[in-house]
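Troubleshooting: if your tokenizer reports a length mismatch, compare your output against this known-good record of 182 residues.
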Amino acid sequence: MWETHSKGWLLTFKIDGLGPKNRELSSMFGQEAKDSMLVDALDCEARCYVMPSSSQSDKSSIAAPMTVLVTFLQQEEINLDKFPDFAWATMEQALDPSFNVHAGVIARYCQEKSMASLEMLKAYGWTVSNMLIAIPLPSKLSTLRDWGADVASVYISMKGLLLKERRLQAPLPRRMCEPRDK
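Known-good structure output:
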């Protein structure tokens, strides 16, 4: 939707596990393990990052800036022979923007948690100056469960957090639709 106060487009989804990926997780790990993972994901500490648009960064493949709420969980690897469309990525692959569309999210998290050295991050083009912006979350919104599933509530909370962040670039101009042929 067009957001008049910030003069930018804001797209909000309710938090519903992984949405369409829930079924795939269930077939890969089993229903019970999938349910456990999603409960853990709702209850562990969330991170909020702003991913730039392709016009703002050469490492972005999306047309507009996007804010993501994310949690990171450790999970045992399973054999993926039955799932040829999936593969376990190495840390190097996960940090490489030519391999992983969400490499910036991984790079920022690895920087925050000291999981990758600055040299390793630099090898894939990540420097302190081009890391994703992290939006601090208040304690009342520190987990995905705290955010809830009401789209309007998520929208209002995220808008408030983004308006406080001074390092964000101004929104891109409003898109114009081509008139329909009659």
